[in-house]
Write a structure and sequence with these properties.
The complex is a heterodimer of chains A (328) and B (340). Chain A has 328 residues and is an alpha/beta fold. Helices cover 37% and strands 20% of the residues of chain A. In chain A, helix 1 (6-20) packs parallel to helix 7, helix 8 packs across helix 12 and helix 9 packs across helix 10. Chain B has 340 residues and is α/β, with parallel strands linked by helices. Chain B has 12 helices and 7 strands. In chain B, helix 9 links the parallel strand 6 (215-219) and strand 7. The structure holds thiamine diphosphate and magnesium ion (MG). Magnesium ion (MG) is lined by residues 157-159, 187, 189-190, 195 of chain B.
């Protein structure tokens, strides 16, 4: 066991996979100098410029080249810098990477990973703050991961690189400095990492389903609720496709209350998918309506007080949980 | 034999010799027969989706792909039947794909617009104009990483030069000196539009040149010059010479799709272009080379018989079983376990 930041865990995962497999390489802007957040620091020195490849500001080509290189038997790791910029490469991801295996009848696979730093981070405003995980979860062919802890960033990124499917790996920018314990395993994490949620806190009164940075707001809320005698169970989903229905349904059936919390816009968000599934499968066990918290359908502001208007906060989670407990 | 001007044309020199010409004649006839069969099959209601025939553009496919090794890589477009056949794919299998049958290249899951045969290095046609350019660049990155001597050929239409990936992909291939031959197959039209009306500046070659790529401009209906040029260019690329750009001028003799009567253009224009189509030109050159018309007629008959047989067989192939709809999506989160 060692202690590492979320950022270092990502770097360690890539470094370990690159050491294990010469077909693994990474490409993106500014990687040669460590990447814009330092997630690649030292890797160019260790693996050389051909495997930690500096690219022009050509997102479509970064992603498209990765598709071509993946179909040729290598395992590219694409760095998109900010998840918002992946929109410049959406054809390459959605129409090409996600479809090639299918439309070519299984003649090929596209084993690439797209690392997309996501989410709200220090007044980054409307074009550098978005959480678009629901878009990717919507696309057949893609795997979607959204780790909340250093350990999960390490395990899920390694597993993503080893997977034969295109994986969108969403790293939350606000989590870069978060520290946690992890084991740099010799036996690499594999397919069992996906679709397996983690119960981050046990509780019998209500189930709170969340992922990525919102995990920490939910844990804070659970702490406060516990002081009032409300025991919230916190489920960190870890991956959105596939997502761990069994754990969510078991928990919600047991507590009878389900609250979904995510940073993304609530309208059309992945919370809606979870809410629909819960009511379809365990309706009779529910003690009240399934609730969800997400951002209002407004772009994200620059000025901190305005930015805070769209941020789901701990207080909001506490209030909603209380309402759910006292309904009826 | 003392006629200096005649000799080099007949034996190497400028010409490529009757044997190679005959090879191209066969391949071009096969492509033409395939396209005509596909159009007929569609008229008969046997091709469920759109097809984009390459009638009139066969020399580009044969002249260029005829200079590739089996393990060289090809990326093509929605108008990709000819390229795919010339790269060595089996037209019988392709025909099954167009008809949406089991035993097609992708068991009927891709159809004409996504025709692919990875066993001959044909990594796919593409339904998105210009998308293959960046994929080709990355295929070349992989070749470089693996230290192979293969090259990548990426064929796209004149319409693709107005899409962003054109700039990104050519620049990319240049800065990394990648082994890619980019071919702009200029048939004057993008769908119903005269591409020149939508293209600023002096055109594709100048754009590629401005990005630092060497540019070769050729008559795309002259299989001989295409063959000769590609042989040299491919050798240069293979030996580390970096990317190259070919702008080849041809003409789309049929409609944009098999269902397009192309009434937006003059009949006279099309008739004039029919007089310059590549297969008859190749035949004329073969006669000049001393091959007799009986031989050529025999090749034509053979091709037609073979294609008729493939068509019959394709029609007899079963549709794909329904379970195929759920196959080849993904391993993790496989829809065969959960699709909802
Ligand atoms: C990005 C994109 N935009 C539009 C289309 C629709 N479309 C299909 S083929 C075509 C014309 C393409 O012209 P060109 O590149 O010259 O190829 P050609 O059809 O002449 O072979 C268009 C507009 C598409 N497939 N992809
Ligand atoms: Mg065209």
């Amino acid at each position: 066991m060692e202690t590492m930041s979320y950022l270092e865990a990502g770097r360690a995962a890539l470094s370990d996979e690159m050491s294990a497999d010469p077909d693994v390489w990474a490409l993106g802007e500014d990687l040669g100098r460590g990447g814009v957040f330092g997630q690649y620091r030292g890797l160019a020195e260790e693996f050389g410029p051909e495997r930690i490849m500096d690219t022009p500001i050509s997102e479509a080509c970064i992603m498209g080249a990765a598709v071509g290189a993946a179909m040729m038997g290598t395992r590219p790791v694409v760095e998109m810098r900010f998840s918002d910029f992946a929109l410049c490469a959406i054809d390459e991801l959605v129409n090409q990477a996600a479809k090639a295996r299918y439309m070519f009848g299984g003649q090929t696979r596209v084993p690439l990973v797209v690392r997309e730093p996501m989410g709200m981070w220090r007044s980054s405003a409307a074009q550098h703050s978005q959480s678009l995980e629901a878009w990717y979860a919507h696309i057949p062919g893609l795997v979607v991961t959204a780790p909340a802890t250093p350990e999960d960033n390490y395990r899920l990124l390694r597993a993503a690189i080893r997977a034969d499917d295109p994986v969108v790996h969403l790293e939350h920018k606000d989590l870069w400095p978060v520290e946690g314990a992890l084991e740099r395993t010799v036996t690499p994490p594999g397919a069992e990492e996906f679709g397996r949620a983690r119960i981050a806190r046990q509780g019998g009164d209500l189930s709170i389903i969340t992922w990525s940075a919102m995990l920490y707001r939910c844990l804070e809320a659970a702490e406060a609720l516990a002081a009032e005698g409300i025991q919230a169970e916190i489920i960190d989903l870890r991956t959105l496709w596939p997502w761990d229905k069994a754990t969510v349904l078991e928990s919600t059936a047991r507590t009878g209350r389900c609250l979904i919390v995510h940073e993304a816009v609530a309208v059309g968000g992945f919370g809606g998918e979870i809410a629909a599934t819960v009511q379809e499968k365990v309706f009779s066990s529910l003690k009240g309506p399934v609730r969800r918290l997400g951002a209002p359908r407004v772009p994200i502001s620059y000025a901190p007080p305005l930015e805070d208007m769209v941020r789901v906060g701990t207080e909001q989670i506490i209030t909603t949980a209380r309402e759910m407990m006292h309904a009826k | 034999m003392n006629d200096d001007t005649e000799t080099p044309r007949r034996h190497g020199g400028n010409g490529i010799g009757p044997e190679r010409l005959l090879h191209h004649y066969r391949v071009m006839l096969l492509i033409r027969a395939f396209e005509e069969t596909a159009i007929r099959a569609q008229k008969n209601g046997q091709v469920p989706g759109p097809i984009h025939p390459s009638i009139g553009q066969e020399a580009v496919a044969s002249g260029i792909c005829g200079n590739l090794r089996r393990d060289d890589v090809l990326l093509s477009t929605h108008r990709g039947h000819g390229h795919t056949i010339a790269k060595g794919a089996d037209p019988a299998v392709m025909l099954r794909e167009l008809l949406g049958r089991e035993g097609g290249n992708s068991n009927g899951k891709g159809g004409s617009m996504h025709i692919a045969d990875f066993s001959v290095g044909m990594l796919g046609a593409n339904g998105v104009v210009g998308a293959n350019i960046v994929i080709a660049a990355g295929a070349a990155n992989a070749i470089r990483l693996k230290g192979d001597e293969r090259i990548v050929v990426c064929i796209f239409g004149d319409g693709a030069v107005n899409r962003g990936p054109f700039l990104e992909g050519l620049n990319w291939a240049r800065i990394y000196d990648l082994p890619v031959l980019f071919v702009c197959e200029d048939n004057s039209y993008s769908s119903t539009t005269v591409t020149a009306n939508m293209t600023g500046g002096p055109g594709p070659g100048a754009r590629a040149g401005a990005l630092g790529l060497p540019v070769t401009e050729l008559d795309g209906n002259d299989v001989e010059s295409l063959d000769r040029a590609t042989r040299d260019i491919a050798a240069t690329i293979r030996s580390g010479g970096g990317p190259h750009f070919m702008h080849v001028h041809t003409y789309r003799l049929a409609g944009h799709t098999a269902a397009d009567p192309a009434t937006y253009r003059d009949r006279a224009e099309v008739e004039a272009r029919w007089r310059r189509e590549p297969i008859a030109r190749c035949a004329a050159r073969l006669i000049e080379e001393g091959v007799n018309e009986t031989t050529l007629a025999a090749i034509r008959r053979e091709t037609e018989t073979a294609m008729a047989e493939m068509y019959e067989k394709a029609l007899a192939a079963p549709p794909p079983p329904q379970r195929r709809a759920f196959e080849d999506v993904q391993d993790i989160g496989d829809p065969r376990q959960e699709a909802f």
